[in-house]
Design goal:
Elements: H1 10-23, E1 32-33, H2 35-42, H3 46-58, E2 62-65, E3 69-72, H4 77-99, H5 111-121, H6 132-149, H7 153-171, H8 177-195, H9 199-218, H10 222-231
Antiparallel strand pairs: 1-3, 2-3
Helix pairs in contact: 1-3, 4-6, 4-7, 4-9, 5-6, 5-8, 6-7, 6-8, 8-9
Length: about 230
């Protein structure tokens, strides 16, 4: 089976698919599988599958089992706590940059990007989405856009990496309508503070918003993970 020519290799495609399977709970923590099962399911050769799995292993998603294939690693909640702490530092710093032009990086603040966020989140209640998956995706995009708008590409790159690593756990935070409503309210207040150039208030609101999400993550149980797979 020949490898396709192009920017994305077959190993990249397998990597992205397996990562998506884990994020969507088609593979849940503790699941065991073999390289052969992946090659058959994705209709690819063994080499890109092995390359993709090694990459996922390095990133802490899976582990290789002696003579018995691979296993999706259980959630490392201590690592998630550390990533949330890092996320909080990055986003509160971004909030201050967005409100104080004196802290600008070599690249200027992207006010147009902030305006786009306001158009999406500062809407009447009747216009809010109730689609949990959609709001989850919008929430992730909101936080990435805030950091990107602050004008520091390296900070945005690190934040995207953190976002990627906590995506699987954040999805479980959007299973209730009350959390969706709270997200709209909290995002709206954060954006209003940024629009008013109140950096301390925006950072405080962001910190509280992230801490609430972090607290919800602490409540997640293995049962919820398995229930998420049933609903996926």
């Amino acid at each position: 089976m020949s490898e396709p020519v192009g920017h994305r290799s077959r190993a990249d495609e397998v990597y992205e698919q397996l990562k998506q399977d884990i994020a969507e709970f088609k593979l849940v923590p503790g699941d065991r599988f073999t390289e052969n099962s992946v090659t058959e399911r994705l209709d690819v050769s063994r080499t890109p599958v092995r390359q993709a799995l090694v990459r996922l292993q390095q990133e802490g998603y899976v582990e290789v089992l002696f003579r018995s294939g691979w296993r999706v690693l259980p959630f490392d909640f201590a690592k998630f706590e550390q990533l949330y702490d890092l996320r909080m530092v990055l986003e509160t710093t971004a909030a201050h940059r967005l409100c104080d032009e004196g802290l600008r990086s070599p690249n200027p603040v992207d006010h147009a990007l902030v305006d786009e966020l306001m158009a999406l989140w500062l809407v009447p209640v009747a216009q809010r989405s109730s689609d949990t998956l959609q709001v989850s995706q919008w929430d992730e995009a909101f936080h990435c856009a805030l950091v990107a708008a602050a004008g520091n590409p390296e900070m945005a790159r690190v934040h995207r990496d953190v976002t990627d690593r906590i995506r699987i756990i954040r999805r479980l935070d959007f299973t209730k309508q009350a959390r969706i409503d709270a997200t709209y309210e909290e995002h709206g207040k954060i954006l209003s503070a940024i629009r008013a150039k109140r950096g301390d208030q925006a950072a405080m609101l962001l910190r509280a918003h992230i801490e609430t999400s972090q607290a919800e993550v602490r409540k997640i149980t293995l049962h919820q993970v398995h229930m998420a797979r049933q609903g996926s």
